[in-house]
Amino acid sequence: MQLIEISPVMAGLLAELHARAFPPHQAWDAPFISRILDLPGNTGLLAETSKGPAGFILYSRVADEGEILTIAVLPEMRRRGIGRRLLSGAMAEMGMHGVRRIFLDVDAENRAAVALYEDMGFVRVGLRKAYYKQPDGSHRNALMLAWAFGEGCGCDNG
Asked: In the prediction, which pLDDT does 130 show?
């Protein structure tokens, strides 16, 4: 597997991957992804395997802080380390650009994603109640996680 830097011309492909990786109410379309990639400091990585694209990560850099915007891995390619590799690659790229802390939000009920992030050293720093709207009108909480270069996250999470 190799990681390839994303460009705005890939928005259509990324939208297809996102639609396959997320439920329809959470999928991002090509115009939305294109707008994200047009913003300064926003970029990402595509995971390319011998079988084709397997997933991608989009992230943002502003000064010394970064944010993971989304990670999408095709369902049939999960549990193969692709999400971990994408996250590691993005963290390394951000670090090379002076980012000292990285933040992300994750559905509190997405146990696999929470486990991955915590295994990678992210710590819980907050909770966004009723953050993710569901098709039935209900809402799910989002955990706010942070990671910092060096020891501890420095996020005063108690």
From this structure: 86
